[in-house]
Design brief:
Layout lengths: L22 H4 L19 E8 L5 H10 L3 E8 L2 H14 L6 E5 L3 H5 L13 H4 L5 H5 L11 E13 H6 L6 H5 L5 H14 L4 E3 L2 H9 L19 H15 L11 H6 L5 E7 L2 H13 L3 E4 L8 E8 L7 H11 L2 H11 L2 E2 L8 H4 L11 H10 L11 H16 L5 H21 L1
Parallel strand pairs: 1-2, 1-3, 5-6
Antiparallel strand pairs: 3-8, 4-6, 4-7, 4-8, 4-9
Helix pairs in contact: 10-11, 10-18, 18-19
Length: 442
Amino acid sequence: MRPRNGAGLRPIALLCACSFVLLATACGGSGGSDASGNNANDGPKIELTIATFNEFGYEDLYREYEAQHPNIKIVERRAPTVDAHIKNLDTNLANGSGLADIEAMEVSWIYNYLAKADEFVDLRDYGANDLKDRWLDWKVAGATTPDGKIIGYGTDIGPEAICYRRDLFAKAGLPTDRAQVAKLFTDWSSYFATGRKFKQKVPGSAWYDSAVLTWEAMRNQLIQAYYSNQDRFLGAENPLLKKTWDQVVKGTADGLSAGLPAWSDQWNKAFRTDKFATMACPGWLLGVIQTNAGSYGKGKWDVADVFPGGGGNWGGSYLTVPKQSPQPVEAARLAAWLTAPEQQVKVFKKVGSFPSTIDAYDDPQVKSQVNPYFNNAPVGQIFVNRAKNVILKQHKGPRDGEINQVFSAALAKVDEGKQPPDAAWKQALDLADKAANTRKSG
């Protein structure tokens, strides 16, 4: 799913080593199973619970699955926010009971639970090895432990492009055609350099909306950002992290950032002004831009098939099966079905969540999508291309999300002129180190 609550960031006892298509007969499901996972449903009525947050777009799919499996009743527990969902999951995980049969986890915090993989079903025992080629390899890697356990099936992703204001580019004497714009941003250095040229021509507008969101895009491309592969907090030992910080705070010093706190009222309203010209732009953000900019932005915004440094991802989720589930076979089967290419296309069509399954990219409903609001940009093909360009498999440690919040908060203070960069960096290192050590001692 797309990030919720702004910057964005959860989780059985019968184990049978059998493939997905044979689960019902080999593992004792209700009735026989065909190659599509449909079964005869001669067994007793089973209620499956699934815990999600905000909007996954699954309601129609639940009814479809129930029609195919008359002995299954699906009950969704939808938390209003990601924070509420995490609180419920952590409480029930600590209590040893109360988790749903399927727990959704967003990409930014699944790493907390990879460290607790023994609390979740290893989906390889339910056919994951036969299914994993469905997804982009980096999506599978995000739910795989160092020793190879797969605890989640991928839902959507957030491949990133660059959204830009054609009218402001024209005012600055920059190309406006999206193919020419794409040539401007081969890496982050060229992105910032073009921004400085833009500021010289259009001093009244910033180059991008927020230092924090730009940091998020850049930091996500580092193979190691906060943690070593051995889950040791790197902090000041990581020169690439400091280099990224320095690039972003230099951008703020040069006036490239509009200094807008993401998801704030000021940020929302800025889309109806000439406050900034570009932003790192996952596919789901197009709807945010359109909603915030309204008629003012129609025809002004466009999307370039490029992302500095190659590819980036912001957003997406997984479906996991806790070991607390009394019916892991049926839960794993439902999770696999909900995340299959056919279902991902349906969700994409309904709520715009971009698929993580490779076969979905050949579906005309995905690859042929055009967005009239963004000058008829071929957004389907653009984001298919962007998804295939995400090649890095960043290692994220058990408190990666919390540590990133520390650095983001520090950067926000710099962006808003509340703290000098060096002091903010030092404070962030201290707080992040405490968070990492708390994890080790707790």
